[in-house]
Amino acid sequence: MPVGLSAPESLAPIDGVWVGTAASGARKEHRDDLTLFAFSGDTEVAATFTDNAFCAAPVLVAREHLRQARPRYLLVNVGSANAGTGEPGIADARRCCALVADALSGPDDQVQADSVLPFSTGVIGEPLPMERIARAIPFACESLKPDGWLEAALAILTTDILPKGISLSKRIGGRQVRLTGIAKGSGMIHPNMATMLAFIATDAKVEAQVLEAVLQRAVHRSFNRISVDGDTSTNDACVLAATGAADNQPIALDSPECAAFADLVCEATAFLSQAIVRDGEGATKFVEIEVIEGENENECLQVAKTVAHSPLVKTALYAGDANWGRILAAVGRAGLADLDIARIRIWLGEVCIVSAGARDPKYREEAGAAVLAREEIRIRIALGRGKAADRMWTCDFSHDYVSINADYRS
Q1: Is 11 left (phi over 0), alpha (psi -120 to 50) or beta?
Q2: Catalytic site residue 195?
Q3: Where in the sequence is the domain holding 399, given as residue range(s)?
Q4: 160 contacts 197 by C-beta, under 8 angstroms
Q5: Which of 92, 323, 349, 353 has its CA at a distance of 20 to 30 angstroms from the CA of residue 48?
Q6: pTM of the predicted model as reported, rounded to 2 decimal places
Q7: Which of 35, 85, 195, 284 is catalytic?
């Protein structure tokens, strides 16, 4: 079971957002696997996508549509990532958008295909099952409702065990502002934007440049600080939509309201990103790696990532083996210039295991093993080079991780 994570009992609707789901049968029969979000006409939308050079067809089309029109709809399919599918995959992603536009168009509201953003998750290299998706889209449109968030959190899952969602509320600029977000992801997790997808909506009224800046900052400090296995997906995406239904004064850059709004979004993305790690494929431990006393944040993050990605560290965490040499070795190969080993200190929880670049004289193996027996573990590394700090959240590697990924397509 996920480490310290439970499924949300409910998720609050956001004025100006409607959510629908349908079962196409693309992944499993009789399970919703197609999700549609609809936004009111004045909604501002910001999005960030994977940095993987082999990005999926829906990423290419979504970026193109964002440049051409104001997004009003998001379509998410599960089962095929529509990545590594070439020009036919791009054509399929565009056809999905056109199918949504056709299904929702009426005499007084002609929906344009470029107002639809497509998202996909699943097996790379597999084409979209277009006949199944085409049949299911009208049902997703018919099911649109304000309180469909929880169904959507379930419909977007692949190898995840639990749905991931959060609803928050905060008074900003004299108005009560609400936010709801969902995410999926369990394996192929090392977003670098940013297999993960996240969809967040708020009823706050926010200037477009503010929404973009807030999303970039929030993603940088959350989704870009997690790793399950060090693999950056071809399909990673995070969307933030602001409907303006709260009727607050538009939140402007560098205002007190902007700072409060940014804190609200960061709280949501921090929860969702950590939930992905807690539900990592085969995970039995949730691990925070904090690096302090660096010359700058970049080198702290460089060290944290190296430790988080180390299979030797992650398997030792799973086994509860206090093999501190694996952590020390990872710090040493992180690539920091002029690293003074004699200044390095490392802690497992409250237990100092390394000082002056060697085993701490007071360290006892049983104390380290006691920390590693916990479900939630903190590794703290002091570089002795400055005042900067950064962190990563990761999990252990278990036998189940290998089994899940060895059997993924079977």
Answers
A1: beta
A2: yes
A3: 286-406
A4: no
A5: 92
A6: 0.93
A7: 195
